[in-house]
Write a structure and sequence with these properties.
Chain lengths: 332, 465, 277
């Protein structure tokens, strides 16, 4: 018995190692190795191609130029933070001096006026895209549900959606800018006009995929669930809350992911065109500067924009996995 | 011919005597305890600029803490183009900006967006140049006389370009050139240079709705934002352009073009940019207006101090990505008193950028009048106007009164010395007749209509398109 | 026994792009309290339409339905439906699916504790108490249908409507479900209308089998009384001559009298019919 067993194990050992190896290679490792191979190939191709492209601003930036710029940009950020601290100290001293002279003076602290660093621009862009996207969602999802529920409303609104959906943000921007500056007048504005401009442009462009997907999700909801609701004679609001919204969650999320992608692309373009603070402005400013570092800084921004776009999409996907009952819709 | 200048001289002398008496009296009787300048009414300000080296006074006032010392907390923002910048000032997004001298004037007379913009501070003299592409340079080089060392004789006149333009026109190819804005110094300088070489740059006819400025044109001028000039020329859309620094030197560094003439050579010590604010702003915040003017005067002085000793530091600041952002070497070329024409042909132009010398910061009425004469010459002002109209407009837009208050308080507080502004005590706002133009035509700001009539190409008194 | 449900001279006409299509013509049926009725017929004959009209998910073109002598116009939980595809809400657990119904129907009559007890009672009834916290996609088809039945039963309906409840199940599971249904029916004695394709299922479960003619203008062809004693046992009945007689009566009706000849020849028409049904 023991003999046969050991014989079996001995015989089986090379097999199992090979099997293990194959199994290992086909599953987990594949998920790590293949993308790594892809990235390494891309980096090689990139640095080779970069060194053979000459522009009037010098060679096209390769991976190492980008790496240098990343550390430059971080250094600049730290320097700027030091300047900021000094600024507040100077301001405090000036306030003290004025108070000593004029005791009735109420000192104010004014925000730092220095330049926005690359990291600041990233944060600005992220805040803008998320605000614009949230605003779009707040409008688009209820609207999409209403359109999905009512065939008449759908027929009334659908042409408008179809017309506005393909409009580029660049076309909206001048109108938005003019309207905002005419309408948004306040002596102590809570948000900067440039922020409002970017936000509304993002909203206008990212609203459509959400409206379309939500209304599609609602309209193509499983008829059986509608019948369940009818048999239970659920009141309209409970019907929407308990049946319609959960049922269309997968479609809503698909729309939201598309919208967030659109929002991010639109924002960068809008920032470039309108010179509104953010990564787009960073790219445009560098392009205008035309210094020997400009191209590598722009390339750095391109990569960061891509990474953030990817991150936003992954975050949305995780959220979808967490909140949606339909796991299969969240697999891509 | 002689009568007009004589008359104005008499008047000027009378005015000067009065001003001088008042000034010296005030300086003597109210030395330090003069009504002290109040705190700024508005402290947080946003100023716009275009990426050009002549924005330097704003950057220096910020970096050297001159704004802060006035209690002003200033944010400085680069703008995409001159139109965006002007709209920003008009709609209040920007409190003030680095402007083309023509912009406040055009806005006030309603050419383009109508708005009351004033300027208490002139930012610099000179600083522009005209650059042509390598292809054009190769064709015009043969038409230029040579010095003993084989280099071209300067200044290069447009006469050398004339055969090239004609060749293009004969071949049915439009000869396109770039300038930065319809009311920019660059537009007028380029037109001046071309017209002096018998190349017609075209008329405007706004009363007919034609604001393209291409009527009768041999060279077609179109608008391109300054930082995009080199790229646009590289793309072949334009054959040459007139722009401020560093965009001419950039063309040399990139090897895509050759600067042929600086505006210093077209009109020695010509006024360039101004600092523009709305009249409403100046009325509402008088102390802020004076204080920002003070800071800018100090910055301009710092830039020219000790024979440009601070310029290398200034270049370092300007090369930061949030200001001009071009490479140090490119900016340094012109800012430190040299100018590179054809690659390797570096010549000394110590006054290429003047920020403070020769009363560069004082807003002369005669400068405003010169821009108005050019607007009339090229049809942007479509009808004849009396000399008095030119004067009135100049007095509306250019505000030496604010400048003088700022200068006076700087002297009172012993921040600057009286000698820094010595000549201004007697100033009536009109410069002596200026002779140093490339075509040797003399300009006297007190007689604009007579001046317009002197040009061979251009609208004259009585002309209407 | 009194008549609880009266389906009175129902016509059903669907408008289609090619003109009106008469699905049902003069369907007339009275059902007594506690009676188990099977509706059988070829697919596309309008069985589901009849059921939907009773549930008020469709509105009859002519005629109407009386429940306890009152005409029904709206869907409601007193006519609970067990759908062919279980129709559980996939974002709710089994327990929550039933809870949604119970909360809606008994919100004024039961305390939360009573509701909990009632839900668990019904889960127990269909032997699904072990899976109450599972989501529908985590359990098998048969289990889903048990939950669907539990949900319908939990509404305490006056009439229970079942639309081919076991049609999508494999044969073994179906047999289990049928046994379970008989066991429940034994306890509760509900009034039931069940649609089925399955002759054995009809004979095994029903008190009466209503056989429908083929469409268009389908109507009730014959009604067969099933007088087999309860509780019924499928193994014992296999040998029972009465059972076999009933079975062959239904088969004769379906495959001789109402033989579907054109089923393959004109698929478009069949398509259309099944669409509307």
């Amino acid at each position: 018995m023991t003999a046969t067993l050991s014989k079996k194990t001995v015989g089986a050992q090379p097999m199992s190692i090979k099997a293990l190896f194959t199994a290992f290679f086909t599953t987990k490792a594949k998920a790590i190795i293949l993308p790594s191979v892809g990235i390494v190939c891309f980096l090689l191709f990139w640095s080779l191609a970069a060194s053979s492209i000459d522009t009037s601003l010098g060679k096209f930036p390769g991976p190492s130029a980008v790496a240098t710029q990343i550390s430059n940009l971080i250094d600049e950020h730290n320097t700027e933070r030091e300047k900021e601290t000094a600024f507040y100290i100077r301001q405090e001293q000036r306030n003290q001096a004025r108070m000593a002279k004029d005791p009735s003076y109420e000192p104010k602290t004014r925000a730092y006026t220095g330049k926005e660093t690359f990291l600041d621009q990233i944060i600005t862009s992220l805040l803008t895209v998320l605000s614009g996207f949230l605003l779009a969602a707040i409008i688009a999802i209820p609207l999409g549900i209403a359109i999905g529920l009512s065939k008449n409303l759908n027929m009334a609104i659908n042409p408008i959606i179809q017309i506005f959906k393909p409009v580029s943000p660049l076309a909206w921007l001048p109108l938005v800018t003019m309207v905002v500056s005419a309408v948004y007048v306040s002596p102590e504005p809570l948000f900067a006009k440039s922020f409002i401009n970017s936000l509304i442009t993002v909203t206008l462009c990212s609203i459509w995929p959400m409206v379309i997907n939500t209304s599609f999700g609602v309209a193509s909801m499983n008829q059986d669930w509608v019948n369940v609701s009818k048999v239970l004679s659920l009141p309209k609001l409970v019907h929407i809350q308990k049946i319609v919204i959960p049922a269309s969650i997968p479609a809503i999320f698909t729309g939201m992911r598309m919208s967030l992608g659109v929002a991010w692309m639109v924002l960068i373009a809008a920032e470039m065109l309108a010179q509104n603070p953010g990564l787009g402005k960073f790219v445009w400013d560098e392009f205008q500067n035309g210094s020997s570092q400009s191209l590598s800084r722009i390339m750095t921004a391109v990569i960061v924009i891509g990474l953030i776009g990817f991150m936003l999409d992954r975050t949305m996907l995780q959220l979808q996995k967490k909140l949606s009952w339909d796991k299969s819709s969240a697999q891509r | 011919m002689l009568k007009v200048p004589l008359e104005s001289h008499c008047k000027r002398i009378c005015q000067a005597v009065i001003v001088a008496t008042c000034m010296s009296a005030s300086m003597l009787t109210t030395p330090l305890h003069a009504t002290e300048l109040g705190y700024p009414e508005k402290e947080e300000l946003t100023f716009g600029f275009i990426k050009l080296t002549d924005m330097a006074p704003i950057a220096i006032a910020y970096e050297k803490g001159f704004f802060e010392e006035e209690g002003l907390y200033v944010t400085i923002e680069a703008q995409a183009n001159w139109k965006v910048l002007l709209d920003g000032v008009i709609d209040g997004r920007l409190d003030g900006a680095h402007m083309l001298a023509g912009q406040p004037i055009a806005a006030t007379i309603g050419y383009g967006t109508k708005a009351e913009i004033i300027t208490p501070f002139s930012m610099d003299l000179n600083g522009n140049a005209i650059t042509v592409s390598n292809e054009i340079w190769a064709q015009m080089k043969g038409n230029i006389p040579k010095q003993a060392d084989g280099k071209p004789v300067h200044p290069i006149k447009a006469d050398a370009l004339k055969p090239v333009v004609e060749k293009y026109l004969d071949a049915g190819k439009p000869f396109n050139m770039g300038m930065v804005f319809p009311v920019s110094t660059h537009n007028y300088e380029l037109r001046y240079w071309l017209a002096a070489g018998n190349i017609h740059p075209g008329f405007y006819a706004p009363h007919k709705g034609d604001t393209s400025g291409k009527i009768d044109a041999q060279a077609l001028l179109s608008v391109t934002p300054p930082p995009q000039m080199p790229a646009t020329m590289e793309a072949g859309t334009i054959y040459g352009y007139c722009v401020g620094e560093p965009w001419n030197q950039q063309a040399v560094f990139k090897g895509i073009g050759v600067p042929v003439v600086t505006d210093y050579e077209i009109w020695k010590n010509n006024p360039e940019k101004v600092f523009g604010i709305t009249k409403a702003f100046a009325d509402k915040y008088p102390n802020t207006t004076i204080r920002l003017t003070r800071a800018l005067i100090r910055a301009a002085k710092w830039l020219d101090d000790n024979n440009n000793a601070n310029r290398p530091e200034a270049v370092k600041i300007l090369s930061q990505s949030n200001y001009v952002g071009a490479d140090y070497d490119v900016i340094a070329n012109s800012m430190t008193g040299t100018f590179e024409y054809e690659k390797g042909d570096k010549r000394s132009v110590p006054d290429f950028n003047v920020f403070f010398r020769y009363n560069a910061t004082y807003p002369y009425y005669s400068d405003a009048v010169w821009y108005l004469t050019q607007m009339r010459r090229w049809g942007q002002i479509s009808e004849d106007k009396p000399d008095s109209w030119y004067k009135d407009i100049a007095a509306k837009v250019y505000r030496p009164d604010i400048y003088m208050k700022a200068a006076q308080s700087l002297v009172d507080e012993k921040i600057l010395s009286k000698s820094d502004f010595a000549d201004l005590a007697n100033e009536d706002g009109y410069r002596e007749p200026q002779k140093h133009f490339i075509d040797n035509i003399v300009y006297d700001g007190t007689t604009p209509n007579a001046y317009i009539n002197k040009f061979k190409i251009g609208l004259k008194a009585g002309d209407k398109l | 026994m009194s008549i609880i449900l009266d389906i009175s001279k129902v016509d059903m006409v669907f408008p289609t792009p090619k003109g009106d299509f008469t699905a049902l013509k003069g369907v007339d049926l009275q059902i007594k309290k506690g009676e188990f009725i099977s509706l059988i017929g070829h697919s596309g004959c309008g069985k589901s339409t009849v059921l939907n009209i009773v549930a008020c998910l469709h509105k009859a073109t002519k005629g109407g339905v009386l429940l306890n002598n009152k005409e029904v116009t709206e869907p409601g939980p007193e006519r609970a439906v067990v759908f062919q595809n279980h129709s559980l809400l996939p974002w709710l657990s089994c327990y929550e699916n039933i809870e949604l119904a119970v909360k809606r129907v008994f919100k004024n009559e039961m305390t939360p504790a009573q509701m909990t007890q009632w839900i668990e009672h019904n889960l127990n009834l269909v032997h699904m108490d072990h899976a109450k916290d599972k989501r529908p996609d985590e359990i098998s088809g048969g289990m889903k249908q048990r939950i669907g039945i539990a949900r319908a039963l939990a509404m305490k309906p006056k009439v229970l409507l079942m639309d081919e409840p076991f049609g999508a199940l494999d044969a073994l599971t179906r047999a289990h479900m049928q046994d379970s249904l008989m066991e429940i029916q034994q306890k509760l004695n509900n009034t039931v209308i069940m649609i089925t394709h399955d002759v054995d299922e009809a004979v095994l479960l029903s008190d009466r089998i209503v056989m429908m003619t083929n469409g268009p203008a389908a109507t009730i062809g014959e009604i067969l009384d099933v007088n087999l004693p309860h509780p019924r046992d499928r193994l014992a009945l296999a040998e029972d001559p009465e059972y076999n007689r009933l079975r062959s009566e239904v088969l004769t009706f379906l495959y001789e009298k109402q033989r579907k000849v054109e089923a393959i020849a004109t698929p478009t028409k069949k398509q259309k019919q099944s669409d509307v049904a």
